[in-house]
Design a protein that fits this description.
alpha/beta; about 220 residues; five-stranded parallel beta sheet; binds CO-5-methoxybenzimidazolylcobamide; globular; single chain; Methyltransferase, Methionine Synthase (B12-binding Domains), Chain A, domain 1; Rossmann fold
Length: about 220
Amino acid sequence: MNPIEQIKDAVVRGRSNALSKYPPDMAGKPGVVELIETALSKHLEVGKILQQGLIAGMEVVGDKFSNGEYFLPDLLMSAQAVKAGMQLIDPLLRGEDSRKLGVIVIGTVRGDMHDIGKNLVAVVLEGGGFDVIDLGIDVSPETFLEQGREHPEAVIGMSALLTTTRESIRTTVDILREADLKNKIIVGGAVVNQEFADEIGADGYSRDATKAVHLVKDLLGITA
Ligand code: B1M
């Protein structure tokens, strides 16, 4: 297995680091943290580590959960492994470029605790030159409203992973529109698509983190 495949495998197995006792059959073996350190020391691209290692691993975990092979504790261990890896590559993805193209206020909507995808979007946007205000998870419409008022130039991004919380996006967009906020709104997450975005009157939809950067640039008329 090459280093990126090893990272992906460690995510699938939910192995964060070499000291972890989980999973028991991997005791003493490196986890996501050590494997990323090795990959970086070999000058492997951070983007590849993210896309083909962490995200690809999490996709496998998602499939295993969906087909009943994995249960919630498995998910949590893998999510923790991704988080540990993200902490390591986050500063590299953000880069040192200090030019700021605009402000993004982003959050996972009310009732929803999923933040892996939203965090990726936030980091990639930051790496793309935007200032990102991350409101976290379970964000109420009132908080989005408050932030929209405070940052009238900001693009507001909402993420949802549950069929039920997709409706929180709709409610939040309605509240922002009723308050006559002029902020552009983008939406994303596994239960969201372009059709839904159009239906609720969002300004844009992106299916992944990289496309979110292009979408925001388009909405703000940034050509660079
Ligand atoms: Co949950 N979960 N989960 N979960 N979980 C899903 C989403 C689910 C599809 C699993 C399944 O049943 N097959 C299912 C939802 C079904 C549905 O409603 N349609 C589900 C469920 C049911 C639940 C619980 C209700 C389980 C329970 O308690 N019985 C519970 C709900 C808790 C809550 O939120 N209130 C729950 C809990 C959890 C964990 C806490 C264990 C954990 C979350 C950990 C965390 O986020 N910190 C978890 C996880 C990890 C998943 C799966 C396995 C993986 C999600 C993920 O991180 N994907 C997921 C199954 C799956 O996806 N196959 C599942 C990787 C991530 C990189 O992708 O988030 O889609 P994603 O983000 C992508 C794009 O969507 C996009 O870009 C990202 C990167 O490219 N994107 C945006 C995301 N946000 C964007 C915003 C944008 C633009 C693009 O602009 C603003």
